[in-house]
């Protein structure tokens, strides 16, 4: 029974069609279920609700196969009041996220989202339970189809309107499966003079005067078997006259499944009542009288949607095969330069002849080796290779004709048979007549498809450029390259990179649309030599992966036959699956940036699939953008590595152990890591029992600041070890900075010398040259500056600096920071010296490391935005003696 608060399902509507499928509990099943529902609804002609149905099915199947972890049964039902889709799993959970007066919870929850969508998109929905299963169903009403216009003609003056009597009579004649008349209406009696009882049960051929049009072999019996036909013929009336009529035939079947044909007939001069408007060909640019008869071939193909090129081509090959009673047919479209033909539609050919395979226009020296002329091959066994598309298919005879528009080759249409000597020039004439009628429509649809592809390509490239420009990380760039190509352009992708001109290509990234095949694909590609790094632009075919996949599949099959492979789980399955996934066409595109090949982009298709030319052109455009992004990421990584290496060289490699003193330093560089900061610190031994410490900040960042930082840190050590006191050290450093001339930068610096005492205290001599003052934390929680401010370095020549003596007792802390700490801002607020004092006052009793960590945490919490300045924190603490 259904849960309360959710409408229970009803079977009151009449079910007119159903489709069902079961999907295993794997991630790939969600996409397969979406495709199943989309194909089913489109096949039923309900494309207007496909999007909503696919979204709901995707969420419900995800809940079943991912969250519940069971197989999902999907059932599609078409009724007279709409579409109903049921998704069942084997997890009989009894939790309903929506009840009276309750909500479903947060939309951000991973589960329950499918029912949220059901409530939002479906007309009705519900959940049914059984002891072993749970059904979630939803119903979508079909929108009312608005009254529309299928075709329309211009407004004509009255004299140009088609001629008709005061009353137009439309004869309705129904023909049963044997070709006999089964129904004859009153208008038929008025037009032809026969009563219903005179004609019922007699063949239509007894009354029809069927024309014999040169080049068209369709007879009356064939026309009555076609699903739709329009054209002209004559009807012999009761008085012996033959009345020209225009007829429209429609093939139908009754409730018992018996086929019959409904014929609508009007007098020839009233044909406008029934005739389907046709597009005039290039040669028919005259007035309304330029087209007098309907073409059965074109009428059978119907009036496909303007963007339905694939449907038009498929109907064309099927009609061509039937027209010449062939075993197979194919239609190829020419590339823009007319050098190759691309397979776009086939019927009756094996899977190896898939779409988008390419063959040359000129295959031989004779006229029969060119697709530009009609050709009849009576026996292909006598001329191997004459039609490359048919090699190995068992076809023996073939007739091919060109599709031309204004003298330009646009394609080729062919019909083949398994027996030799089937076709002659007469069949070639008939097929050429049909090709001429369809060529303009095909070319128009092809140009429309190309325009849509170009627009889609531009959108794709814009999005790809934005994504690639949004990162300078090499690994992320590689991942984006692959994710943009799979599955949009290819089934799988591999990216090879080249470190430098002397290095071999290295397999850096592999992606397949089926994640289960990625590892097998990576192993397969790693077992073969990488493609040659040829800088020639454009895609080139690479056969090595397909050959390796074939060998792997053959070896696995042999092991299976020999019984050496064991159960299926031993690895044969993945090997065969990988071989099938890599067995199609593989192309390589060079990644060229700044006139250097930095890698290769490899795209592949599964078994027997081929790339179409437009996709390869799009992939070439993408490869150019991806190559530049990848090279930019490389340059950025190199610059970042150099900056980090330089930054490390400006900081001490380690801190010395000072007896009786706890020391801790925290350094945080702002920015993205590609610039050297101006903050630095140092702690080093000077002489026995004496240690120097410094913390400073050079104005600005980058190479100029790094030069001053390096000068300051190394000069401090050198001068201090030469025996100079603090003021003398800083005065000489000031002179050295000024000697740099235009490259000099001013520097704030806190320098001190520290000597631990035998009583457990430590004596410090400190000079603070324009730097934030050091703070001393006493055991009683008192915080006060430990030095007075003095002029900064690098500004004036004559400096008179002095040092101050500070004694740290056990439990005291000396905190030294750069201005990145005190100038931390949140809007108009700044942490400042007072804020730092308040933080330090709470650190009584903490170790040096804990003091530095608390200060850093307070600085980070002061503002939400990331720090914009470097920060250095140096904490010195005299530990309290341990009492036994």
Describe the 3D structure.
- It contains 19 helices and 34 strands.
- The chain is of the alpha+beta class and 884 residues long.
- Strands 7-6-11-10-9-8 form a six-stranded antiparallel sheet. Strands 14-13-12-17-16-15 form a six-stranded antiparallel sheet.
- A hairpin with a 5-residue loop joins β26 and β27.
- It is elongated and about 140 Å long.
- Residues 273-296 are annotated as: Disordered.
Give the integer mean of the pLDDT values. 80
Cα shape:
elongated
Oligomer: single chain
Strand order of the largest sheet: 7-6-11-10-9-8
User: What is the terminal separation in angstroms?
Assistant: 77 Å
> How many strand segments?
34
| Low-pLDDT segments, ≥5 res | 1-11, 94-111, 213-217, 278-306, 564-574
Sheet-strand content, in percent, reads: 25-35%
Number of separate helices: 19
Helix content: 25-40%
Radius of gyration: 42 Å
Based on secondary structure, the structural category is alpha+beta
* Largest beta-sheet characterization: 6 strands, antiparallel
Keywords: Hydrolase
Organism: Streptomyces roseoviridis
Protein name: SpoIIE family protein phosphatase
InterPro entries: Bact_Sigma-Reg, GAF, GAF-like_dom_sf, HATPase_C_sf, HATPase_dom, PAS, PAS-like_dom_sf, PAS_fold
